[in-house]
Amino acid sequence: MKVEVRVYPREGVLDPQGKAIAAALGRLGHRSVLDVRAGKVFFIDVAGSDARAVEADARKMAEELLANTVIEGYDVRVLQ
Amino acid sequence: MKFGIVVFPGSNCDEDCHHVAKDLLGCEADYIWHHDTELKSADVIILPGGFAYGDYLRAGALARFSPVMESVAKFAAQGGPVLGICNGFQVLLEAGLLPGAMHINRGLRYVCRDIHMKVENVATPFTSLYEKGSVVKMPVGHMEGNYTAPPEVLDALEREGRVVFRYCDAEGRVTDEANPNGAARGIAGIVNELGNVVGLMPHPDRCAESLLGNDQGLKMFQSAVAALATR
């Protein structure tokens, strides 16, 4: 199965990259942009067919490695 | 008295630390490959600067899974002195041996220059030879040195005197301008609860002999020697 893990700066946590991107978008004329938070996305292929087990596994991966939960949040989506 | 210097794939200040320990201090020094689990009976462990595992994912995130880190954690739990310099500090944070995390620098650029910082805790095995409140000059070279932690953790660090170094100007004033990376409360270095694991972003290994124009970092290594001599 394929599972997608998105990792992003927690709400309210300083995100210098997102800020810089927001400023660049503004300079390009995208004046509607109010705020950007920049994160990472992981597309993971896993063996198994139980979506709930796969999701639980992916959450564990996020907690243990993919996200630094001091500053980052994450969400998990089983794709198929 | 033996220094053990951990070498991760991508460490690049391991030789600097080895040079300080062996050539400048006349101590025994040995490299410890990240795959080793034996700490070679080292009395003090240094996690040097560099780019362990290419900083993939996050600085220090993959290095913490190196086999050697389990031994380092055990050594630390038993009170063994551990110093993490720059990337080594990042590894200690990711490994949970020190609290908090690193953001990318607020300027989004690699910062490579001399900074000043105040020595606020001289009770650690790496700062005992400094004078409390004194200002030292050391070079920094990093992209992710913007230290952060939840407010209650920052408060605890302050309350317990665990902020070891704080960025300041040459006169010792803690100002925003003197903060090279945006680190919370100007924190440049901290110590764990037990008082034996220290991490800092600046590089004492790069300013340990007057030949290089600055020897203010040498006292960190000398402090470790002194601490072990009295143990």
Strand fraction of chain A equals 25-35%
| Helical run tally of chain A | 2
Span between termini of chain B: 11 Å
How many strand segments of chain A? 3
Rounded average pLDDT of chain A: 94
Uncertain residue segments of chain B? none
Structural class of chain A: alpha+beta
**Topology as H/E string of chain B?**
EHEEHEHEEEEHEEEH
Strand order of the largest sheet of chain A: 2-1-3
Order of helices and strands of chain A: EHEHE
Q: Using the 3D structure, state the CATH architecture of chain B.
A: 3-Layer(aba) Sandwich
Number of helices of chain B: 5
Shape by Cα distribution of chain A? elongated
How would you concisely characterize the structure shown here?
The complex is a heterodimer of chains A (80) and B (231). With 80 residues, chain A is α+β, with helices and mostly antiparallel strands. Chain A is built from 2 helices and 3 strands.
Break the fold down into its secondary structure elements and pairings.
The complex is a heterodimer of chains A (80) and B (231).
Chain A: E1 2-9, H1 16-27, E2 40-45, H2 51-66, E3 72-78
Antiparallel strand pairs in A: 1-2, 1-3
Chain B: E1 2-7, H1 14-24, E2 28-33, E3 44-47, H2 67-77, E4 82-85, H3 87-94, E5 101-103, E6 111-119, E7 135-142, E8 146-148, H4 151-159, E9 163-168, E10 187-191, E11 197-200, H5 218-229
Parallel strand pairs in B: 1-2, 1-3, 3-4, 4-11
Antiparallel strand pairs in B: 5-8, 6-7, 6-9, 9-10, 10-11
Task: Describe the protein in words.
- Chain A has 80 residues and is of the alpha+beta class.
- Chain A has one domain (2-78): Mth169, Chain: A (2-Layer Sandwich).
- Helices cover 35% and strands 26% of the residues of chain A.
- Chain A has two helices and three strands; from the N terminus they run E-H-E-H-E.
- Chain A has a three-stranded antiparallel β-sheet with strand order 2-1-3, covered by helices on one side.
- Chain A is elongated.
- The model of chain A has no long low-confidence stretch (mean pLDDT 94).
- Chain B is α/β, with parallel strands linked by helices.
- Chain B has one domain: Class I glutamine amidotransferase (GATase) domain (Rossmann fold), CATH 3.40.50.
- Chain B contains five helices and eleven strands.
- Chain B has helices at 14-24, 67-77, 87-94, 151-159, 218-229; strands at residues 2-7, 28-33, 44-47, 82-85, 101-103, 111-119, 135-142, 146-148, 163-168, 187-191, 197-200.
- Chain B has a nine-stranded mixed β-sheet with strand order 2-1-3-4-11-10-9-6-7, sandwiched between helices. In chain B, strands 5-8 form a two-stranded antiparallel ribbon.
- The A-B interface holds A 13-17, 20, 65-66, 68, 70-71 and B 57-58, 61, 65, 94, 100-101, 103-108, 146, 148-150, 182.
